Amino acid sequence: MSGTRKSNADGKPRRRGNPALRRLACYAFAIAFVFAGWEITALILDTPALPTPAATVPVFISYASEMLPDFLTSLYRVLVSLLIGVALALPIGLALGRCPEADALFAPVLYILYPLPKIVILPILLVLLGLGGAPKIALIALTIFFQVIVVMRDAAKAIPQNTIESVRSLGCTRIDMLRHVTIPATLPDLFTTLRVSSGIAIAVLFFAEAIAGSTGLGYFIMESWAMISYTRMFAGIIALAILGVLIYEAFDLVERRVTRHRR
Questions:
Q1: pLDDT band at 211 (very low <50, low <70, confident <90, very high)
Q2: 187 or 33, which is more confident
Q3: Is residue 5, in this structure, part of any structural domain at all?
């Protein structure tokens, strides 16, 4: 049977390896693979603009304490932006997906605004909100908002109509339908778009901090570039990569916890 646990030749259940150790081993391989490619590329190009990992890692360690405030600032901006964007987009996307009349009315608005690069409104946000963290958070939240609303709208639309009718025949209210059908059915799509959106959010954050900021990893990287300190610049890039991995892994962990019913 497919649900039985595999056994060894002596009939005893086969022990699975520690998932955390397997995860760490995979990351160790990934880091080695990336560093090897980086090292080879740096040796081939032989330019100060691309230092080797061996030259960059000690600089990363030496600047770790100096980068920590910028790391935490960038982390805060990304997390708050994701929270705002998802909190606003999730109910709207689900409503559009389950209400054909509303979708017919607002879908053209979505089609017009979604392809528009949100980064172009950064100057407007800077005028309205100043040069602090608010315009950066607003820009990322706006980008995430459209990303999530499109995915959740399509996910809600994809729920089979016969499933909806079966649940309605049991006398379920709209709230029951939302809790027991719509949200569970669309959770995997939500976490997929959150992982994709986290990468987009970090890219937008870098751009916003680089051109209009004095804090954050984006500013640290561009400041290093202006100083022609390329090892320092790549140390900031490593920190930004770590930020992305932490957010991605956090979403992956939460997804495994809340979507156990689909496994």
A1: confident
A2: 33
A3: no
